[in-house]
Amino acid sequence: MRLLIAVTAAALVSSAACADPPSMMGSQTMMSSHAMMGPAKMLGSGTMIIHHQVTDYAKWRIAYDADQPNRTKAGLTNCRVQRSMDDINDVMISCTMADVSKARTFTSSKTLMDTMSKAGVTGKPQFLFLSPPQ
What we know:
Number of helices: 6
Helix content: 40-55%
Number of domains: 1
Structural class: alpha+beta
CATH class: Alpha Beta
Number of strands: 4
Strand order of the largest sheet: 2-3-1-4
Strand content: 25-35%
Shape: globular
Largest sheet: 4 strands, antiparallel
């Protein structure tokens, strides 16, 4: 399953890199500004991935859709839900995040844990925070 997450994350980063042309100032300048900000303070179009198992996708999807306002408050946009071809209850969500600090706060919130529990998420969800394409 970790391979699925890694492959999907690589595909997302690769597609974002193709869609986001380099700045007119050059990649050297862009890399320097990201390096100065550091990972905890990085703002911009990073990606957050959530991976978990659910007991019933249809039930989970209703709760997921109802939780949209909380994702919006956390600065998460363009969320895509994908399921494993081998197990329809193996779910991965990838979202563009405006602010990694807000996204991390969201993933550790009691509200999200309660929503996941009521929606039928089983086991411990995995969260992955990816930097913007380099």
